[in-house]
Amino acid sequence: MGITHATRPKPAQPAVETAIPNPAHGAVLMWCGYRRTCAARRALGRGFVGGGCESGGMWSDNEYAEWLLTSQRGVLCRAQVLSLGVTAHGLAWRIRQGGSWQRLLPGVYLTVTGEPTQAQREVAALLYAGQPSIITGPAALLKHKIRCPASAAVDVLVPARRERASRDFVVMHRTRRMPQSWTVDQALRYALPARAVVDTAAALTGLADARAVVASAVQQRRCTVDQIAAELRERHRPGHGLLHTVLAEIAGGTMSAAEGDLRDLIASSGLPVPFYNPTLFLDGKFLARPDAWWPQAAVAVEVDSMEFHLLPEDWEQTMRRHRRMSAAGLSVLHVSPRQLRTESRQVLADIAAALRAGRPAPRVTTRRLAA
Rounded CA gap, 106 and 167, in Å? Predict the structure, then answer.
């Protein structure tokens, strides 16, 4: 038997999520060959356990080994395995068919059996990519709790000079713009939200998906529109048309993916163009900020998502806003994101009927969102 992540585990360390500046040349050594092998050999010098074959094993009280297995979620590269005193023969014994370890990528091993977790796949991707390397794309967005299309791949940024091909679930992205700061969770390094948003959007083919990514990042305050725009300006290659479109929509007042769907629906309908996300005032006092607004008929449309009404207080706040607008003489139409997609004709018919029946509300003034 050999050391696995489950053998005398060191207590899990709390996840660290903080922006770490890139040191000189962007090189951060992960214990692979840390202080070469001298520290590991000193820790292993008193004896070995397990092994089961001529390979020898690893010292059970080796704090270095336990720290390494914990911080890297039980994933090791070949150099790390050898630095812990396991011979090449011992490694081959462990990863044989039916062995206690498994090979995830060339030169990268998981020290337990069973399906690897997402975090273990991400550690394996970084070990395979080498140093420096940083996770970006959907995997980084998920770390930041930003909604994005599902992806089985782990996207990794590496320097442009790095000659390492994509393999299995790892997609390598060579870049001359390696991030100068990143988010750290033990052995894992993730691109900051704005970079991850732009890298993800570059691979998307649907406007709705791009809207959803940007809206989630901005609404959850993971990054700002200005940060995304600044990241986009640094790019010197095509392939970001969708992101440019989404940022232009936001400048025009569209603040969510569902509102983008509403904009598209109205644009294709022949209805008068409304103001999007304007600020309304009643006798000079703030009244509301509807998703779409036709001042000539005092008609407002609100896109109400279940995501923002999971708590009773959220729903009550929406009802209070509706009462305020109705009391001011506005006609307020509520639609769901699903209705925009599945009942689009009826939604348009309802808006058209409200516009025909409406009339201006003289006490209500409009301030458009600044572009």
Answer: 9
Q: Which CATH architecture has domain 258-367?
A: 3-Layer(aba) Sandwich (3.40)
The H or E element that residue 64 is part of is: helix 63-71
* Tokens matching residue 254: 């569209």
Domain ranges of the chain: 19-125, 130-251, 258-367
Nearest Cα neighbor of 83 from 113, 52, 59 is: 59
- Distance CA(131)–CA(141), nearest Å, equals 21
pLDDT above 60 (res 307): no
Range among 13-27, 31-45, 63-77, 129-143 with highest mean pLDDT value? 129-143
Choice among 15-19, 119-123, 171-175 with the minimum mean pLDDT: 15-19
Which residue is listed with tokens 């010292």?
Answer: 59
Query: Residue 53: what are its φ and ψ, rounded to 5°?
Result: -145, -170
Report the alpha-carbon distance of residue 229 to residue 215 in Å, rounded. Answer: 14
Least trusted range by pLDDT, from 40-49, 99-108, 325-334: 40-49
